[in-house]
């Protein structure tokens, strides 16, 4: 029992560190960055893998630890108020961390879980854009804000979805063959 707790903590540390490394790498690839915030988020692959490896509870915890580490490391965030912070950062990570709720085995379930998490992430960030980041000259909640936010948030969330749908199942297939994976399989 004690060894299992140590193993869980070790894997969470590994995935959180991978989250930070992928976030760091993504900062140095210019075409992944949006001019006013947002990017193709390679680091989400680490959270998806953690969720499918250890389960949704540990996936959420790993996502929060990874996010806190990025704050400690000084990665930029855009902060207006608690509502915007929750919609732009916390809720999307909760959705990604919980992606394994639909089932952990089988690539179809993984693709559905990843897709659903990314759709919920997009909706959360869409709402943030509509109510907290309207385009210049428009009012929060206006038609212009909805159109602008929908387009602005769509492309990088869609690109992140495609990257994760390709990368995560491939990595999970390789991990499923290891003894480390079998210790958490249910």
TrEMBL record:
One GO CC term on file: plasma membrane
GO molecular function terms listed in the Swiss-Prot or TrEMBL record: thiamine transmembrane transporter activity
The alphabetized UniProt keywords are:
Membrane, Transmembrane, Transmembrane helix
Species whose genome carries this gene: Grylomicrobium aquisgranensis
Q: Gene3D superfamilies, alphabetically?
A: 1.10.1760.20
One Pfam family here: Thia_YuaJ
Query: What name is this protein filed under?
Result: Energy-coupled thiamine transporter ThiT
InterPro entries named among the record's database cross-references:
Thia_Transptr_ThiT
The domain of life for this entry's organism is Bacteria
Chain segments annotated as transmembrane: 6-25, 58-79, 114-134, 154-172
